[in-house]
Amino acid sequence: MIGRFLWRAGPPGDPVFGNGEIMINTLYLPELRELLDEDNDAELAEFCTALHPARTADFMEGLTTDERWSVLQHADIESRVGIFSYFDRECQVDAVGSQDRREVAEVIAAMPPDDRVDLLNDVESQVVSELLPLLPAVERRDILRLRAYPEESAGALMTTEFAELSENLSVKEAIDEIGRQARELETISYLYIVDDDQSDQLRGVISARQLISAVARPEITLGQLMERDLVTVNVLDDQEEIANKVAHFDLLAIPVIDDDRRMLGIITHDDIIDVFREEATEDAHRIAGVDPLEQSYLETGIFTLTWKRGVWLIVLFVGALLTAFALTYYDENHLQWWSWLVVFIPLVISSGGNSGNQSATLIITAMVTGDVTLRNWYQVIRRELFVGLMLGGGLGTIGFVAALAMNYSLLQSAVLPITLLLVVVSGTLLGASLPLIFKRLGLDPALMSNPFVAGIIDILGIVIYMSVAACLLSR
């Protein structure tokens, strides 16, 4: 079966491998179930090691949680953990809660520290309480310590498995020591140098490349080789700040220290990628006017999804009502004489809302990437003022020509370009300033979402439009 399986999967880029994954899973699910029924240990063990763990997990997607767990029991612990890590989170949580506690504890103990803590945070507290006593004391203490840190902090993200060496070791001794540690470490891209008095204070860092390059000088100490100008994060730093720092300095990992500069762990680049994805998803949800989902879209319940979307829709609906009230006021006082103004209301509102959305999106994105900070507020406002004047002037010119082409008088046509200029400038300034104000108040700038900005501009646009018409046409 495995020989046919490997032939069928083919190399990356093969038409079947690249485009027929669902078909492959469907073809081999009966054979996998047949091997499970026969308890064919040899072929199931080969199945678990023949391909990359991610590919093996893909081939098991059609199996139930119980069947997947049964397949894993035929693999060594390293393969078992590797494949399990590529199961979707729902399946992982289900397996932890439903399978034999001792078997689950064995897998949990062998997982990277940060990954197992993330998983256990999604598991029911009763299940966690039953699992903890079954774990080795060292892993149990590590889990309890990491779970004590605030969510989305450096402490919650870090792994406690890292290469830690004394500054007095020679290059030769360091290579021997890394050879002993490597099997238990998540990464050895950087070797962290600590002092010798058992306080674990971080002194410096050496890259693996630097260490290998120094092989020709085996007696030189790490203290002489290490870089002392370190980029670090505090254990309580927010994950978004950490991600920006790692991206700015182009690091593969970053050390986590406490207030006494003691080395506590590292945050690796794969965790940083997850942070960027999580933050980008949250910002995208907020920009669209949706309260961020805690689970994936398909895993979120209908009532929860309705609530998270409904809260913002109610806020925006109230904003639209205010626009309607504004129109009612002007309807009673002016529109009975200037009914032609209604024709251009959608144009005015959309121009202001769209320009505000553009500014808000640009500023929120720039703040997330670190290109714009609160100190740049004057530059931002000045730039958006000039951009608003140019955009408003351009749109106003087009609107003026269009109004004349529709046989409106020169005075009537003049209402539109003046309004568009004022509305677009207001939109760009509000769209740029509101995220900065939210940041200054300690809130997420993405809360100032595009629909929210558009709602404010809608009301302001009506007021400006009718006020300009009143000034020009009441004479």
Can you give a write-up of this model?
Strand 5 (253-257) and strand 6 (263-268) form a beta hairpin. This protein is elongated. The protein has a three-stranded mixed β-sheet with strand order 1-2-3. It is mostly helical and 475 residues long. It has helices at residues 2-9, 15-19, 21-38, 41-50, 53-59, 65-72, 77-84, 89-98, 101-110, 113-121, 125-131, 137-147, 154-157, 171-181, 208-213, 222-225, 239-249, 269-287, 302-335, 345-369, 377-405, 410-440, 450-473; strands spanning 163-166, 190-194, 202-207, 233-234, 253-257, 263-268. The protein contains 23 helices and six strands.
Derived from helix and strand composition plus strand pairing, the structural class reads: mainly alpha
Distance between the termini: 90 Å
The averaged pLDDT comes out at: 81
Strand order of the largest sheet: 1-2-3
The CATH topology of the largest domain comes to Tetracycline Repressor, domain 2
Helix and strand pattern: HHHHHHHHHHHHHEHEEHHEHEEHHHHHH
List the domain count as a whole number: 3
Taking Cα atoms only, what radius of gyration do you get, to the nearest Å? 30 Å
**Helix fraction by DSSP (H/I, runs of at least 4):** 55-70%
CATH architecture descriptor name of the largest domain: Orthogonal Bundle
Shape: elongated
